[in-house]
Design a protein that fits this description.
heterodimer, A: mainly alpha, ABC transporter involved in vitamin B12 uptake, BtuC, two-stranded antiparallel ribbon, 2 strands, B: mainly alpha, two-stranded antiparallel sheet, 75% helix, 3% strand
């Protein structure tokens, strides 16, 4: 039973319209800053979920891929004053290639080696960037925002809309994959790789596709980041909280469909935005860690799983 | 130049001995039992901070604290395995959720230590820290030499335990053929529980060594994740002597990098080697 995709696309269009309308109404800059972070997490956790949730391979190097996007933007801004679309394109391309490379090196082995390699990758990249003077090294680097942008009152609003568009794009990609043969092939790999291979699913090619796309989305999420923070150093670019959040959000929301990461990101992202202001940021990361452990132990299918169970009981 | 070279070799060997102590827990749990406990460094940090607290309050030698705390860590490890077994292994979900579980535990451990002790670097006091024994042109820093010796003793004991005792042999049996063991009437879960306890117990001693070698803050545990897995894979997964050899190689490689290119490059060495090993020879140096 294949439901019509029409409601989904209508939803995307409505969301886009609401986002643009919001910039005409909301004046307080803080909301754009906060919303940007939540939207960034939608892109990151959707990207993570394409590999982790659909295909069943865990990437712990999210911070590394994110930083690839951020630092390739730094290079492009310093070198060419490249405009936003170029930053996003190149950030995604470089991160996607790194994802492909890591996958190619490790995916023929057992799945855990991929996970360990991604952890290692983030640290290698961080060491590399720390020692690279052109992008500021360990001291960090300042990026100056363009003074004016067309159509938008100020740059923060523009960044908000950019990230909004990227989030919608990421969700749309996840939706399309889920409903195509690619998504079904990935699910087969997740459930039983040997059986999938035997049935003629091109497992290695699908896995490589997933690592590439997943890495690219994370790089895309990082590309506008230098303009968002205006000051970027390795410890903020490679912050482990990206990795923890991007793993926690899909697992808490639910990994089998595009809705899960979105629910997880909106919920956890918003809670953290409030908690960072009201409590300390260390406590709020502790909460994420505890929630992650609680959900994987007690509610393995996430919030989406809990809801479907509830609905089925009613029916 | 030769002096520099010799000193780098000696420092690398001493450092490598310590790395072996950090890795042996992973060799048992990941190499032999196939449980991807990426939270192992969190337990090592816990060991460091217990050593720090007791040492600063009562002035006890850190190594003694590490050894005395092993029963506590053993029980902690068994409890961890219980949770892991009932929540993931029995349900056949260890692949994604089990990994995420350990990742969460790693993170909870780190943030909890930050909340209790803050992000400042902490160190311990002992008479041998800061002293050097000079043999010709080579300086032997005691803060590296003491952990090195303790590590060799610990590895020897673990190797004896695995080779000579009933439970040790049972652990090896689980790693070699789970089904056969079950048919013999032994429970793999029970034996794995003991192995996990043993693994976490080694983290207690390794943690006390870590804080002797240098000042420690909660987040440096992360630097050890790639390192320990690199050593474990390079050493052929299941072998304790292999672990020691691989640890010495990585120790020397890092020491050379730190001496000749600067210490900021050395974290990348282990990880770079890991990627290389995974790509070229995943069976490890001593693997078949």
């Amino acid at each position: 039973m294949k439901r019509s995709p029409l409601p989904f696309w209508i939803g995307i269009v409505v969301a886009a319209a609401l986002g643009i309308a919001a910039t005409r109404v909301v004046d307080n800059q803080y909301y754009y800053f906060a919303a940007y972070v939540v939207l960034q997490y939608i892109v990151l956790s959707t990207g993570w979920n394409i590999l982790g949730g659909y295909t069943g391979y865990v990437n712990f190097g999210v911070a590394g891929f994110f930083a690839i996007g951020a630092y390739s933007s730094v290079v492009l801004i310093k070198w060419l004053h490249a405009p936003m679309p170029v930053l996003i394109l190149v950030g995604g391309l470089v991160a996607g290639l790194v994802g492909l490379g890591t996958g190619y090196l490790t995916l023929r082995l057992k799945g855990v080696f991929f996970s360990i390699a991604t952890l290692a990758l983030a640290i290698v990249l961080q060491t590399f960037v720390t020692n690279w003077d052109y992008v500021g090294g360990s001291r960090g680097v300042y990026t100056i925002r363009p003074r004016t942008v067309m159509f938008f009152g100020n740059y923060v609003e523009f960044l908000f809309i950019v990230m909004f568009g990227l989030a919608l794009g990421a969700v749309a990609i996840a939706f399309l994959i889920e409903r195509s043969w690619i998504g079904r092939g990935m699910a087969a790999i997740r459930d039983d790789e040997l059986a999938a291979e035997a049935m003629g699913v091109p497992t290695l090619r699908l896995k490589l596709f997933a690592t590439t796309l997943s890495g690219a989305l994370m790089g895309i999420a990082g590309a506008p980041y230098p303009y968002y923070v205006t000051y970027l150093d390795p410890s903020s670019g490679f912050n482990l909280s990206y990795a923890v959040n991007s793993v926690a959000m899909p697992l808490i929301g639910g990994t089998t469909s595009w809705v899960g990461p979105v629910i997880g990101a909106v919920l956890l992202g918003t809670v953290q935005q409030v908690a960072t202001v009201t409590i300390s940021s260390a406590v709020n990361l502790l909460i994420v860690g505890l929630l992650l452990v609680f959900f994987v132990v007690a509610a393995p299918d996430g919030i989406v799983g809990l809801i479907t169970k509830l609905v089925r009981k009613r029916a | 130049m030769l002096d520099l070279f010799l000193n780098a070799v000696v420092a690398g060997i001493l450092l490598g001995g310590f790395y072996a102590a950090v890795t042996v827990g992973i060799t048992i749990v990941f190499g032999m039992l196939d449980i991807v406990n990426i939270a192992h460094p969190a337990f090592i940090m816990l060991g460091s901070f217990i050593a720090y607290y007791v040492n600063q309050t009562y002035g006890v030698d850190p190594i003694v604290i590490g050894v005395v705390a092993t029963p506590l860590f053993f029980v902690l490890g068994m409890a961890m395995y219980r949770i892991y077994y009932t929540s993931f292994e029995r349900r056949g979900q260890e692949a994604i959720r089990g990994l995420a579980f350990f990742f969460g535990v790693l993170f909870i451990g780190e943030v909890s230590l930050i909340l209790v002790f803050g992000v400042d670097y902490r160190s311990v006091d002992a008479s041998y820290i800061g002293t050097n024994v000079n043999i010709g042109p080579v300086g032997l820093p005691m803060r590296l030499f003491v952990p090195f010796v303790v590590s060799l003793v610990m590895l020897g004991l673990v190797e004896l335990f695995l080779g000579r005792t009933f439970f040790g042999r049972a652990i090896k049996a689980v790693s070699q053929d789970r089904l056969a063991l079950q048919l013999m009437g032994a429970s793999p879960a029970r034996i794995k529980e003991i192995a996990f306890g043993l693994s976490i117990a080694t983290a207690s001693i390794a943690g006390s060594m870590l804080i002797i070698i240098g000042p420690v803050e909660p987040s440096i545990g992360r630097d050890y994740i790639g390192r320990v897995f690199a050593i474990c894979v390079l050493g052929g997964m299941t072998s304790i002597p292999g672990t020691l050899i691989a640890a010495l190689i990585i120790g020397i490689a890092e020491s050379f990098t730190a001496t000749f290119y600067g210490p900021s490059w050395s974290p990348a060495i282990a990880f770079g080697l890991l990627l290389l090993v995974l790509a070229v020879r995943p069976a490890g140096l001593l693997g078949r």
